[in-house]
Design a protein that fits this description.
75 residues; alpha+beta; binds zinc ion
């Protein structure tokens, strides 16, 4: 069985583990339409724009419509 030639010191082992533990920042970019920070390659959550056109209609606060949510059994 292959074995390591030398003992790795605690300091060396810990420093190796420490550098792998760095937090990755979310890849945010500014929306070209409204200027809100959004994740790149994702539809803007505030205006629903993606690649220069409206993809998703932005959610607006309104009272509950006829769609109650959930499945309705036909009778
Ligand atoms: Zn936007």
């Amino acid at each position: 069985m292959p074995n390591p030639k030398r003992k790795f010191t605690r300091a060396r082992r810990d420093s190796r583990r420490a550098k792998n533990w760095t937090l990755v920042e979310n890849n945010l970019s500014r929306c070209t339409q409204c200027g809100v920070m959004r994740a790149s390659h994702r539809v803007c959550p505030s205006c629903g724009f993606y690649n220069g056109k409206i993809v998703v209609v932005a959610k607006t606060k309104k009272s509950k419509g006829p769609e109650g949510g959930g499945e309705q059994k036909p009778q």
